[in-house]
Amino acid sequence: MTTAQQDRRKNLTTAALMAPAALWLLVFLVLPFIAIIVFAFGERAPEGGYQAAFTFAQFANLPSRATAFWNTMILAPAGAFICLVVAYPVAYYLALKADRRYRLLLVSLVVVPFWTSLLVRTYAWMYILGSRGIPNLLSIIGLEDVRLINTPFAVMVGIVYGYLPLMIMPLYVSLEKLDRRLIDASNDLGAHPVTTFFKITLPLSMPGVMTGIALVTILLLGEYLIPQLLGGGKVFFIGNALVDLFLQSRNWPFGSAIAVTLVAVVVLVLLISMRLAWRIAGTRQVDLI
């Protein structure tokens, strides 16, 4: 068999293996998104839904949902940053300090919350932050009228709790691959542990940092459940606006315009994260997905 025939067979094998996934993405991702783009340039039908047209009026009307955009653009990155601050020490301990005999068990405990539905866990936080939870305990020590539920604070608590494992795992993978001889060399040369961390550990773990931030931020940009339950309708995200427009107002073109804008923002966040990761890591061999 010639080299050309071998290459052709490899290409056919690769195409056959990728075909099911490619077909799945085409049918359930690409084609629906094309439909959303078409809807975005249409008009709302008198009875609701979509009416064929070609207009930019839906995009011009985006400022009417500015509150949802601002809440999302502020709370999503803020939630990702808080997740990073909380997750990094946990991932650092798991990767570099934990006993190897118990490391797998500890990593498994990080994943355990995913065994329970996010809806159930969020309802639990509704009780904890509600009037019969923490505020009731605070009233016993004299702190009356403390309101936690239906506030940005409650939404942020839910975000950190729900998305923390997704931040820990990329950090753990990045730190676990770190060459510990570099840390040992820094310690042998008399560097302070803080200096070692900021000069060696943190820079070498930046691919994991950027992966975690990008992953959590992108998911938060489309979050609906946590703001709806813990925000009580007072803290709106873009996801809440989309549900309102598609299912209640039945303004599909305007909802599609918001969805297209959200996808553009997600792509922009991903590109910026990749460029930052490449620049910091000094290589393009950085995975963000």
Automatic annotation (TrEMBL):
CDD domains linked: TM_PBP2 (cd06261)
Transmembrane spans: 21-41, 68-92, 104-128, 148-173, 208-226, 252-274
ABC transmembrane type-1 domain location: 69-273
Pfam family, one: BPD_transp_1
Keywords associated with the record: Cell membrane, Membrane, Transmembrane, Transmembrane helix, Transport
Subcellular location: Cell membrane
GO BP annotations, alphabetical order: transmembrane transport
PROSITE patterns given in the database record: ABC_TM1
Tagged with keyword Cell membrane: yes
Cellular component annotations (GO), alphabetically ordered: plasma membrane
InterPro entries cross-referenced by the UniProt entry: MetI-like (IPR000515), MetI-like_sf (IPR035906)
Similarity section: Belongs to the binding-protein-dependent transport system permease family. CysTW subfamily.
Name of the protein in question: ABC transporter permease
Organism: Rhizobium setariae
